[in-house]
Write a structure and sequence with these properties.
four-stranded parallel β-sheet; single chain; 2 domains; Rossmann fold; alpha/beta; 12 strands
């Protein structure tokens, strides 16, 4: 008996030593979220098995497509910052993000050597508590200046590790400009212009685009005195007409801003294309100068703000707007005295929005949703990481796009904040974990927790009673739990901060949807990739291109771990069942914990 025990201990020790040796001798070719020894597609130098995609968005590329883009000279990275803020009764709170979606793509496409990073929707919008500036309006989410700068710095450092030679900040909101400039100048000093890090102030030059469009027939004739104008309305329109409530405004005969009509859809789109074209060309000229300068250009004279209306002496009132005395009813980004739609208690002039995403709602929509009892906010965290040869780097964000909405609708009293797409993915420099693969973006743990804290504090300020963190990646769980615990102690029952770890790790005994359907069974093969049938199908519910479905079917590669996704209607049916099951499980846990 004693000899058997001793032998067992020796064997265990030998196994542990072998395991440790194996870890020490990891293959330097391991990449893509897996081991080269287990699948050739996890090897650093394996060619991409699919045709190169046409997108300029890194979130829409696989890790090996990012690798190949860099090798082909696409070494310019554009980081576009937007915001979540009030914009009058017609424009959604994610206004600047819709603008950036059209403009970043146009800029990167015209440059030919650039990729766009996922949009950063969280930016400084005023003090959180007590609230100032836009934070006084429901739906606004603000970052402290130090948090914003830390996020920009971590993103830039991640991109440098992967070999980007030009890292550019463009911001569509005034409050973003100072932080971008400060981070760019700090990194330029540290890195001595290699790579180039530059804040492109000229992107925010709404005066130039306003003047250009006035010369081409887009002239404001009156001033509506709202946080809105014809240029930005059209710039949003080209991305999504519903972001400016186009259909509802046409039906209500309210499809004008500052005297300019957007009712003619064809004409509005043509005007929008002109605006995007001008802004792209104007920004590229500044980018070229900044790259030649090896950093940010000297600050230009103060530019006309986005919603300034017609220049002095042109149309309507003429002259600069007068700053009225503060009114406690001022809301929506403007003055109550200048337009009733800027008053806290003015009824919403449009039908109730059907979306559960705060970014897709106007400030009035959010105000009315809170009054109607929608006081649970879900903060979903995803990531940018390698996921084998078939799934894009934004894998977790696509999953959450489907699942956060499903959870919110299951609850019935919840809204989703914009997905947090920047999370810890490993040490940045020297790189560890997923940071060893091109296309990964990582935040330091303290930066990630600061982001979650600022989002949650903003939501509490507006009257949300439950702020719920769900994370689709393992590295997100600890930070979410830390922040939830810290805020629960700080808030003292005024509101709840909840981390639902079971969203990511199903409790024992949870039914396996694919197993119950007979799709998977014991003994099926593993491809050895950072991928699985469940997550592939969950992504497909948001966008089949995120798993390269058409290309894989064409190449006879539409399987993962022995499960075929080639039959699209069947695959989407499975996907819905997976998402609904995860949503029901998570919603039930939220209900239980919100009642404690």
């Amino acid at each position: 008996m004693k000899r058997a025990v001793v032998l067992g201990v020796m064997l265990l020790a030998a196994a542990q030593a072998a395991s440790a040796q194996q870890r020490r001798e990891a293959d330097p070719r391991d990449i893509g979220g897996g081991r080269c020894a287990e699948n050739v597609y996890n090897c650093r130098d394996t060619p991409s098995p699919l045709p190169a995609p046409s997108t300029v968005w890194m979130e829409e590329l696989t890790w090996n497509e990012v690798r190949d883009a860099l090798a082909a000279g696409k070494t310019t990275a554009i980081i576009a910052t937007g915001g979540i803020e009030p914009n009058g009764p017609w424009l959604v709170t994610g206004k600047h993000n819709y603008v950036n979606k059209a403009n970043c793509e146009a800029i990167a496409t015209k440059l030919g050597n650039a990729l766009c990073m996922p949009l950063l929707p969280y930016t400084p919008e005023g003090d959180i508590n007590p609230p100032t500036s836009h934070m006084r309006s429901p739906g606004t989410i603000s970052m402290r200046e130090e948090t914003f700068q830390a996020v920009l710095e971590d993103i830039a450092r991640s991109l440098k590790v992967h070999g980007f030679q030009n890292i550019l900040f463009i911001g569509d909101s005034g409050g973003n400009q100072g932080g971008q400039r400060a981070v760019a100048e700090k990194l330029t000093t540290e890195w001595r212009g290699n790579p180039v890090v530059a804040h492109i102030q000229e992107y925010y030059d709404y005066g130039a685009v306003g003047d250009y469009m006035e010369q081409h027939g887009l002239a404001s004739t009156v001033r509506d005195n709202m946080h809105d104008d014809p240029v930005i309305t059209h710039n949003m329109f080209i991305t999504d007409p519903s972001s400016v409530r186009w259909a509802e405004r046409v039906a209500a005969d309210k499809a004008t801003i500052n005297g300019v009509s957007i009712a003619d859809r064809v004409k509005a789109l043509e005007t929008a294309r002109q605006i995007v074209e001008f802004r792209a060309n104007h920004t590229i000229a500044a980018i070229e100068k900044a790259i030649a300068n090896r950093g940010t250009l000297a600050a230009a004279p103060r530019q006309r703000p986005q919603n300034a209306g017609p220049p002095q002496g042109q149309g309507g009132q003429g002259g600069p707007p007068q700053r009225p005395a503060p009114d406690p009813r001022d809301m929506g980004g403007g003055s109550c005295a200048q337009n009733a739609y800027n008053c806290a208690d003015t009824p919403n002039p449009l039908p109730t929005a059907s979306t559960v995403w705060i970014e897709e709602m106007t400030w009035m929509d959010v105000r009315d949703a809170l009054k109607a009892g929608k006081t649970t906010a879900i903060v979903a965290t995803g990531g940018m990481e390698p996921n084998g040869p078939w799934l894009v780097t934004g894998k977790h964000n696509y999953v959450l796009d489907a699942n956060c909405e499903a959870i919110a609708r299951n609850l019935g009293n919840a809204l989703c904040a914009p997905i947090v797409k920047w999370v810890p993915e490993g040490q940045i420099d020297p790189p560890t974990g997923h940071m060893r693969s091109p296309g990964t973006i990582s935040l330091r743990q303290e930066t990630f927790e600061a982001v979650l804290t600022d989002i949650a504090e903003s939501l509490k300020q507006h009257g949300f009673k439950n702020v719920v963190f769900i994370g689709d990646s393992g590295g997100n769980q600890g930070g979410q739990e830390n922040v939830a615990n810290a805020l629960a102690a700080k808030w003292g029952g005024q509101a709840r901060a909840l981390h639902i770890g079971e969203y990511y790790t199903a409790p024992p005994g949870t039914p396996n949807v694919l197993r119950e359907l007979g799709v998977t069974r014991e003994g099926m093969p593993s491809d050895g990739l950072h991928d699985s049938p469940g997550i592939t199908l969950n992504m497909m519910l948001s966008d089949i291109n995120s798993v390269r479905w058409p290309e894989r079917v064409e190449a006879d590669q539409a399987t993962i771990n022995g499960v075929s996704i080639a039959d699209l209607p069947t695959a989407l049916q499975w996907a819905r069942q997976i998402s609904e099951a995860r949503a029901a499980r998570t919603a039930d846990l939220i209900r239980q914990r919100a009642l404690r």
